[in-house]
Amino acid sequence: MSKFEPVLLANVGKPNSHTLQAYQAAGGYAGLRKVLKDMTPAATIEMVKQSNLRGRGGAGFPTGLKWTFLPKDHPGPIYMCINADESEPSTFNNRILMEDDPHQVIEGTIISCYATRASTAYIYLRFEYPLCYERLQKAIDECYAANLLGPKILGSEFALDIYLHRGAAAYICGEETGLIESLEGKRAWPRIKPPFPAVEGLFRKPTVVNNVETMACVTQIATRGVEWFKSIGVPSDPKNPRDPGSYGPKLYCISGHINKPGCYEAPLGITCRQLIDEYGGGVWKGRKAKAAVPGGISMGLLSAAELDTPLDFAGPGKVGCLGLGTAAVTVIDETVSMVDFLHNTCRFFQHESCGQCTPCREGTNWALRMMERIKAGRGRLRDLDLLLEIGDSIGIIPGSTICGLADGAAWPMKNAIRKFRGEFEEYIRRTNPSGYMTTEAVEALPLETAH
Amino acid sequence: MAHSIPTADRLPEERVLTDEMRAEIRAFFPRYPTRQAVTLPALHVVNEHLRWVPLKAVEEIAEMLELAPADVQDTLSFYGLFKQDKPAGLTRAWVCRSISCALRGGEEVLEHLCHKAGIRPGETTADGSLTLEFGECLGACEFAPCMLANKTLHKDLTPEKADAFLKECGVRNTTTNGKP
Ligand SMILES: Cc1cc2nc3c(=O)[nH]c(=O)nc-3n(C[C@H](O)[C@H](O)[C@H](O)COP(=O)(O)O)c2cc1C
Ligand code: SF4
Ligand code: FES
């Protein structure tokens, strides 16, 4: 692959890159000017549709298509929510954008609001990002002062307000309807769909929820054009009419057992191995990778033999993972026990389940109890089948839960046990040779509870 | 997420929301079409001033937002951030225990800090200088293992850096028996 010039990260790391002055000096807000001057909202939606941009928040839903679900000729208000919750373990690419290039995100937000005729945008920012809060607020203030926000933006008839809204430490606020409930001042309990947010979302009005990186892509599409965007990545498969392709640049963040952890920009379709070797400087301490998480822990696991999987929207699904997710790769070296890995992910999902749906609430809890027991040397071989059974039955497919968290909890379970079963069996045989445990021993085990 | 709810006899009589806090909360009203949407912003205002949200504050927020106190309490109790039994320590620190940090020793750092400070995760040192908690992915995995202490991100933690941090916080009553 020839050397790729970063676009989304072009300003990152430069002096004062978070200020309006630096952003404009680098050509910022040219895309917005062009859109406001030359394009109608409908044409702007069409542009994003033509680019085949797919949402960068995890599910990869086509952005332009999502916008067309808004009711036509709605009297308003229409709301835009920018999902800056970013709580998926090992994911931090949105943070980099918001800290070092908040105006790129805001420019995309203004363009998206113009396209969708939204009059108010809320940026839902997780509490744990204090520097993002400071920089985004400053950037928003700068925009109001420069007539990039407020009434009659840049002399047009378009008016927009953007407000920052902070979360309070809960993963489920990243789920789009959980986010909406949280913004409304309630528990972040995801809503049953339909109605979809585009029809009835925030404050019961038509609402679009989009990710931070998606907004940065909108900025670049408006600035550089559809052709530029479509020249990068993996084209759609002509033999598969349902494949929308994976176009554009993508931010990949890489962490765990890697020499140079960080956030890198590459064309969609780069393989996991290329990312590890060419960008991440290889596995640390000269060790070998045993496995890698392809895109946040809810996507499952790639085994060492699957590292050549392309990290585009279709790739991870072909090797038994849920999908590309947030393209956050975690490298796990050969010294790590998969029992510890799975215990860690089960603990996360048990802690973060909102508790509304019985399969999710009880399933994540049950899985964690079993992983604690296995880890403590009291596992039984048949626990592995039980874990697989839980994994296969708590997800949204076949529709037993309200949101995707349960599915996300299931994938690391299914992948870890199916792809590393021998290791789990070996651990259980070694730590609990009799394979037997008394009821008292089970009951005496601690269950980690929240706070 | 279990929270203990303070009993009525421990509530202060006087108003806990100062005029300054009320003004800060009111400044959020024009941003949202409903008062209820100001719940989280209001809780943040109180939390930033007091380091906790006593039940009396919940009542006063509810009054400002034209809600029942139970509505505010219901929301508050869902989120991990707000304490209701007593104020958090002067420094409140979350040590990440999620996967990227755990792979690089995050759980050991949390254990080390707890051991040195003589508290368990979620507790505050007796001198009120530090509250230690576990956090789920702080979104700073390239600096694993990491910790967010108030607004400062502590990167690439080691036991030595953790010791220096405790000193910085002025934690005095370090014991080694795991109890305050
Ligand atoms: C449990 C759960 C957590 C999620 N967390 C996030 C998140 O932190 N950030 C995000 O952008 N999307 C998150 N999503 C996806 C959102 O629901 C939604 O699909 C996304 O924000 C849409 O934006 P996009 O179309 O621009 O990708 C999450 C989904 C689920 C099920
Ligand atoms: S699947 Fe889990 S997190 Fe999602 S709504 Fe149901 S209980 Fe809550
Ligand atoms: S896993 Fe610790 S900050 Fe992400």
Order of strands, widest sheet of chain A: 8-7-11-9-10
Largest interface: A-B, 59 and 47 residues
* Count of runs of 4 or more consecutive helical residues of chain B: 7
Q: Tally the helices of chain A: what do you get?
A: 18
**Could you spell the SSE succession of chain B in H and E letters?**
HHHHEHHEEEH
Tell me the fraction of residues in β-strands of chain B, as a range.
5-15%
Termini Cα gap of chain B: 23 Å
Roughly how many Å apart are the termini of chain A? 48 Å
Largest sheet of chain B: 4 strands, mixed
Mean pLDDT of chain A: 94
Low-confidence stretches of chain B: 176-180
Strand ordering within the main sheet of chain B: 2-1-3-4
What tags apply to this protein structure?
heterodimer; A: alpha/beta; five-stranded mixed beta sheet; four-stranded parallel beta sheet; 42% helix; globular; B: 180 residues; alpha+beta; four-stranded mixed beta sheet; 10% strand; disordered C terminus; binds flavin mononucleotide; binds iron/sulfur cluster; binds FE2/S2 (inorganic) cluster
SSE layout:
The complex is a heterodimer of chains A (451) and B (180).
Chain A: H1 20-25, H2 30-38, H3 41-51, H4 63-68, E1 79-84, H5 93-100, H6 102-116, E2 120-125, H7 130-145, E3 161-166, H8 176-183, E4 207-211, H9 212-224, H10 226-230, E5 233-234, E6 246-247, E7 249-256, E8 262-267, H11 272-279, E9 289-293, E10 302-303, H12 315-318, E11 328-333, H13 338-352, H14 358-378, H15 381-393, H16 405-419, H17 421-431, H18 439-444
Parallel strand pairs in A: 1-2, 1-4, 2-3, 7-11
Antiparallel strand pairs in A: 5-6, 7-8, 9-10, 9-11
Helix pairs in contact in A: 2-6, 2-9, 3-6, 5-6, 5-7, 6-9, 13-14, 13-16, 14-15, 14-16, 14-17, 15-16
Chain B: H1 19-26, H2 39-50, H3 55-65, H4 69-76, E1 91-96, H5 99-103, H6 106-117, E2 130-135, E3 147-149, E4 152-154, H7 159-169
Parallel strand pairs in B: 1-2
Antiparallel strand pairs in B: 1-3, 3-4
Helix pairs in contact in B: 2-3, 3-4, 6-7
The complex binds flavin mononucleotide (FMN), iron/sulfur cluster and FE2/S2 (inorganic) cluster.
